[in-house]
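ok, trying the design again with the full structure, not the truncated one.
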């Protein structure tokens, strides 16, 4: 029993209740107090109560696992200090005991016709490329990204385009006041677009408002962390609230056929804040990335039920909002350090599109016992692998050097094809030899030091030729696929050959360092094992 405001209703605190609203049964989760239930009752709702144990629960804010007592570490995801107390977290639906007879529904055939085009183009080519051709009816998309990266800007632009094309587009902001959203639209030159705007955070209010009139074609919820639903008691932003709000919105999308975009915040380690479970519930997860100091923004699909996940959309943040970049290579190479040792141009592929980008390496003698290895924009374990291969097979000694590798422009490369370009940049920096400025590099390096072929050789070469490059360093075995790209080809069978070629261009750095450099790459870069065996 509980005293306080609820006591005057003379009914025990409800820890579980079933609310009947019309024909639908909505489970009120454990922990719902009578005060809440009575509010509903005033709206013409019948309340059924079951006595159950009070269920205060501790929920991991990282993965959503629930515990009945506090502990330092979450057993489910292994994170420390992520458990926080939430009321009504264990949402055991009691409605199972409902005596309502199930509603009958019609079963359909697979070949049925949908009345409408299932996809709607956003009017922004780069955005459509990532979603796989536009927003799918009834789908829910999660857009994650650091604060200030431009999520609201991107979605304001997308909703305005759709609204101008005559579709009903709704923008619900839970973070900014209407005046702030308007100010942004004005700045973007989109103030005249007939977007329907609201600053709301209650999911029930949003769903009931949007159920009126024509079904909106696109609804933006900015952001899911600010939304709350009164079916659960936790504070907005907690795992339970975020999950329940997302569930309610997803239900609405599926039922109405509107496409919904949820904006999600990202924690400092790059996860979408709150529950990972939201990622599993939605149809697609897009991540909006970029270095704060740089103008480039990259939209990437992390998950997509209706399209590819390897495409990227490239944008540039300007004073007038996000500008689409249809030729990213030009952008990534626009501020090249021509004539500096340690830079190599990698001919990469992002999805279906070739992208040329500069890799920058710095190899410097270390003053530490354990040399530093730092990498931005590439996989650190692939860097370690390339360094090990250079050391083991090519006679390049790096154990006394700090190594830094950076992908210019804030791009994040995931292809193993960047191995060769990374190796070229590293050796170039080590021996202080400038690489030819008109050369591109691509190829995967195996643990034995062999340069292996990679996919889409012709597309990479074509892009390089288009941007004015004169030669390509590529795997020997890929020569057959090269065709006539209009570039001079320099096929490489093993990493040793590359190291020897670069070392031959080297110039000593100065008196103090010259003796050191001479010993760093041993004569003719003979493989270590060969030297041992042959004296
Ligand atoms: P915003 O879309 O509010 O970011 P998010 O919603 O991801 O937090 O974008 C904020 C940043 O974008 C802000 O630092 C200013 C910059 N910006 C521009 O450079 N140009 C513009 O036209 C707009 C609207 C924003
Ligand atoms: Mg925002």
């Amino acid at each position: 029993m509980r005293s306080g405001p609820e006591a005057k209703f003379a009914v025990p605190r409800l820890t579980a209740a079933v609310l009947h609203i019309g024909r639908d049964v909505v489970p009120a989760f454990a922990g719902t107090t009578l005060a809440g239930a009575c509010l509903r009752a005033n709206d013409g709702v019948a309340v059924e109560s079951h006595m159950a144990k009070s269920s205060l629960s501790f929920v991991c804010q990282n993965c959503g696992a629930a515990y009945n007592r506090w502990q330092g570490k979450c057993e489910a995801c292994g994170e420390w200090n992520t458990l926080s107390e939430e009321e009504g977290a264990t949402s055991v639906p009691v409605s199972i005991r409902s005596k309502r007879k199930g509603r009958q529904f019609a079963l359909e055939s697979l070949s049925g016709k949908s009345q409408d085009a299932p996809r709607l183009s956003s009017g922004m080519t780069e955005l459509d490329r990532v979603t796989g051709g536009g927003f799918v009816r009834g789908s829910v998309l999660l857009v994650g990204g650091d604060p200030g990266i431009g999520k609201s800007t991107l979605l304001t632009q997308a909703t305005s385009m759709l609204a101008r094309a005559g579709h009903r587009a709704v923008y619900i902001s839970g973070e900014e006041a209407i005046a702030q959203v308007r100010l942004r639209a004005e700045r973007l030159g989109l103030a005249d677009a007939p977007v329907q705007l609201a600053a709301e955070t209650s999911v029930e209010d949003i769903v009931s408002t949007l159920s009126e009139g024509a079904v909106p074609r696109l609804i933006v919820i900015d952001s899911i962390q600010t939304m709350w639903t009164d079916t659960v008691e936790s504070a907005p932003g907690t795992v339970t609230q975020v999950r329940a709000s997302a569930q309610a919105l997803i239900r609405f999308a599926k039922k109405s056929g509107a496409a919904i975009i949820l904006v999600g915040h990202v924690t400092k380690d790059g996860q979408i804040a709150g529950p990972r479970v939201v990622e599993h519930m939605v149809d697609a997860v897009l991540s909006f990335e970029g270095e704060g100091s740089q103008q480039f923004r990259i939209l990437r699909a992390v998950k997509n039920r209706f399209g590819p996940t390897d495409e990227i959309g490239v944008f540039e943040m300007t004073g007038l909002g996000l500008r689409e970049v249809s030729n990213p290579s030009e952008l990534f190479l626009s501020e090249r350090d021509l004539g500096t040792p340690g830079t190599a141009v990698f001919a990469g592929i992002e999805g279906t599109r070739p992208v040329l980008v500069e890799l920058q390496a710095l190899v410097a003698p270390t003053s530490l016992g354990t040399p530093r290895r730092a990498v931005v924009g590439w996989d650190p374990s692939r860097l370690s692998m390339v360094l090990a291969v250079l050391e083991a097979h090519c006679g390049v000694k790096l154990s006394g050097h700090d190594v830094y590798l950076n992908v210019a422009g804030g791009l994040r490369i995931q292809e193993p094809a960047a191995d060769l370009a990374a190796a070229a940049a590293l050796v170039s920096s080590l021996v202080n030899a400038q690489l030819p400025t008109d050369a591109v590099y691509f190829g995967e390096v195996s643990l034995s030091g062999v340069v292996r072929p990679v996919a889409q050789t012709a597309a990479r070469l074509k892009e390089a030729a288009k941007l004015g490059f004169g030669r390509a360093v590529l795997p020997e075995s890929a020569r057959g696929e090269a065709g006539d790209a209009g570039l001079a080809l320099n096929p490489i069978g093993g990493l040793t050959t590359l190291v020897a070629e670069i070392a031959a261009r080297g110039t000593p750095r100065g008196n103090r360092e010259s003796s050191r450099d001479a010993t760093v790459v041993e004569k003719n870069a003979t493989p270590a094992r060969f030297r041992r065996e042959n004296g």
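Keeping the full-length input from now on. The radius of gyration is 29 Å.
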